[in-house]
Amino acid sequence: MLSRIIRADEGVLGVRVYHMLNLGVLWLTPVALVSPPPLTSICDTIIALAFPIHGHIGMNYVLTDYVPKVFGKGARGPARVIMLGVTTATTAGLLKLNMDGPGVTGALKALWTK
Ligand code: HEM
């Protein structure tokens, strides 16, 4: 299970889940921005999980392509483990923003509201 999450650009996760997430975040982001308060929190929770997972799979594609070229084949595994750490920290940060702060959407809206 953990090895599947670490090698996130392979199998069902790398193809099906990734494509669904690509479309999902595309629709979810504008919907979250215009949604009324109760719905905003639901969107915020989904975003806090969907963005990091989307970024994690996308970055694993990037790591697969470039890490062997730059650092050698042996560096691919450690790079993927580091990426999992980054994804875990990002998810925790976004969830904390939702629970203790203005939420993901609120933080984004704060760019243009007082
Ligand atoms: C509205 C939000 C977003 C949309 C609509 C979106 C959409 C996409 C799409 C369509 C792709 C290309 C997928 C493919 O190659 O088949 C992609 C790739 C990627 N996205 Fe996002 N994305 C969003 C947010 C994010 C966020 C927040 C992150 C970071 C956490 C992120 C990280 C990445 C990465 C790393 C890739 C892979 C780039 C590559 O393969 O060269 N995206 N995204």
Automatic annotation (TrEMBL):
One of the record's GO molecular function terms: heme binding
Subcellular location, principal: mitochondrion
Example of a GO biological process term: mitochondrial electron transport, succinate to ubiquinone
Membrane topology: Multi-pass membrane protein
Binding-site list for heme b: 54
Residues noted as binding a ubiquinone in the record, renumbered to the chain: 66
Top-rank lineage group of the source organism: Eukaryota
Species lineage: Eukaryota, Sar, Stramenopiles, Ochrophyta, Pelagophyceae
A GO cellular component entry from the record: mitochondrial inner membrane
Keyword Transit peptide recorded: yes
Subcellular location: Mitochondrion inner membrane
Record PANTHER family: SUCCINATE DEHYDROGENASE, SUCCINATE DEHYDROGENASE [UBIQUINONE] CYTOCHROME B SMALL SUBUNIT, MITOCHONDRIAL
One Pfam match: CybS
Family: Belongs to the CybS family.
Entry keyword set: Iron, Membrane, Metal-binding, Mitochondrion, Mitochondrion inner membrane, Transit peptide, Transmembrane, Transmembrane helix, Transport
Protein name as annotated: Succinate dehydrogenase [ubiquinone] cytochrome b small subunit
